[in-house]
Design a protein that fits this description.
Length: about 375
């Protein structure tokens, strides 16, 4: 190893650069999504994901009670399972604590986790506790999914519609209000409360998966065949017909959750799929209060880069996307489409704003200076 490489620091390459290097140590067919898929039986695959939260980085006494920290940690892992199309089975909890932490704080943390998990009949099935100079919470979540319903980042193709399952920017707005309550002077009390709750008690979108399966299952063989023909240029027509009739064929859906921001999710999907995207500026759903509370540019920044909204971002054929959004209702929206190339462009169809290329540097990244 030359001296230049040996002196390279994590902060020099950032979170994404470090992940790229570490992925070389893992099986390429398993990593690269929100969770890893391990085939355990012909009818079900085991899905595993791990999330680490650090005091002062992911939660603090200023913005987060112990109960809320527990809820958010559980929700983050359940959201990763939802992003893979999986239903939760259980979680394990690794907890690093300074000796001075009060026992009551730890019990309240677990109470918050339990409150979130109980909504989805998900137990805490084990874990570990160690002494640490800083409070650290590492959760591993286990889920299951039928092999033909696994959602991956790498499955987007040109022409797909990009769907989001709800508004974006609410969690970041809640964080801002917790840090600077004076910013809420022009908001109604109910609006402030809703934003703060969106930050402290996010909801993993496991609820939209049955809707997605219903839409996919209800499509005629003709529609599914057209999807498969468009997605696979390497298979013969007879094989594609057989694939349509085979219940274990892969679903025509790519996706991940938007915990690190809407822009991040779309860029990550495009990178994994080798495609680009065009987003329509005015189609991105934001909370109604943003229209009179924030300038347009700031509202858009909250939506694209604020993060921690835990919505799903899915790419699927236009006809399926339209039916999916119609079933979900008002908050869901088609925000753009997948294109050739590699650029992710923010477009304004009314031409009041110039086109803008989106990139990861504008959102939160660990180790960023």
């Amino acid at each position: 190893m030359n001296s230049e490489l040996s002196s390279l620091q994590v902060k020099d390459i950032g979170e994404q650069g470090l992940l790229e290097r570490l992925q070389r140590f893992c099986p390429p067919e398993i990593i690269g999504d929100d969770a890893a898929v391990l085939v355990t039986a012909p009818e079900q695959s085991l899905v595993v994901t791990t999330d680490v939260l650090i005091d002062g980085v992911h939660f603090s006494n200023v913005t987060t009670s112990p109960e809320d920290a527990g809820w958010r940690s559980a929700a983050a892992n359940l959201s990763d399972l939802a992003a893979m199309g999986a239903s939760p089975l259980g979680i394990t909890v690794g907890l690093g604590l300074p000796g001075e932490v009060k026992v009551s704080w730890v019990e309240r943390l677990y109470q918050g986790m339990t409150e979130c998990l109980q909504q989805y009949n998900t137990p805490i099935v084990g874990g570990d506790i160690v002494r640490s100079p800083v409070t650290t919470l590492a959760i591993t979540a286990f889920g299951q999914v039928q092999p033909n319903r696994i959602i991956r980042r790498s499955a987007a193709v040109v022409g797909d519609a990009i769907v989001v399952t709800g508004v974006h920017g609410a969690s970041h707005a809640g964080l801002k209000l917790l840090l600077h309550p004076e910013l809420g002077q022009n908001l109604k009390d109910a609006e402030c409360t809703a934003f703060i709750r969106a930050h402290q008690r996010p909801q993993p979108r496991l609820d939209v998966l049955p809707v997605l399966w219903k839409i996919l299952d209800s499509q005629s063989k003709i529609v599914r065949l057209s999807v498969l023909l468009r997605r696979s240029k390497l298979r013969t027509a007879s094989l594609r017909v057989a694939e349509v009739q085979n219940p274990k064929s892969k679903i025509p859906v790519a996706g991940m959750d938007s915990s690190d921001g809407l822009a991040d999710a779309i860029i990550q999907i495009c990178r994994a799929s080798g495609v680009g995207a065009v987003l329509e500026r005015r189609q991105i759903p934001v909370p109604k209060a943003f229209k009179y509370w924030l300038p347009q540019d700031q509202a858009l920044e909250y939506a694209l880069y604020g993060g921690e909204d835990f919505e799903l971002v899915l790419c699927l054929p236009q006809e399926l996307a339209s039916a999916f959004v119609q079933h979900l209702g008002e908050a869901a929206a088609i925000v753009g489409s997948i294109t050739s190339g590699s650029t992710v462009l923010l477009h304004d169809e009314q031409k009041k704003f110039p086109g803008q290329i989106l990139n990861l540097s504008q959102g939160f990244q660990h180790f960023k200076n």
